Amino acid sequence: MCRMRARLATVLAPAALALATLCVSGAALAADAQQRAEARRLDPLARAAFWGSELQADAADAEAGVGLAQALRGLGRDDEAAEVAAKVLVARPDDPALLLELARAHIARGQGFYAIEPARKAASLAPRDWRPLTLLAVAYEQAERGEEAEAAHRQALALAPNEATPLTNYAMHLAAKGDLAGAETQLRRAVALPSAGIQARQNLALVVGLQGRLPEAERLARADLPPEQVANNLAYLRAALGQGGSARTWNALKAGGGM
What we know:
mainly alpha, two-stranded antiparallel sheet, 16 helices, 2 strands
């Protein structure tokens, strides 16, 4: 077992590991399609055990690489997620899903510069897919390349004008530049879409709050969050407003507690 797998084994629950591992004479066997589908519904810890076992059976298994990297991100282990995706990409260099997962892991660890190349390559391999472009835009933002970020956001929106994720990401790009009214417009479009989730709604709460409309921000936040997290987010907003000025940096917006 390589060092990465050894580290993984030290933190996985024994019951989850036993559930995920099939052995014959000590050799791991790949799970069938039904088992893999069931594994996707597990919690991140159990998914990490399952997909780690699948990679033991086949170190070039792109689906397993994506699954393990996603699970590790869900556990907050972004560096290891990037390591897993990068290792499997050695054998599967043109797999779009692996490239996307490597980009996501680098963005999650705050290293967007390193997400640029895999996101670019994924975009070239799947030119009609908006996901590489919206990731590329966020990567450019983290790398402080604003004009390229703007262009990538607009390309993603051109491909998917009715998807909540690229709208939300573009809105937060506008907010980070200080255009809170423009960000609110985009976020209200996003939250009205069927694909909208908690992130879009709580980003709307953040942007509304940063414009000083705290009662409305509180109402939006309470739709999804427990009281203690709402209180924390409102405290952040009051502190942000107390500092003066509506223009917020990307890092300041990201520090808002997920609102």
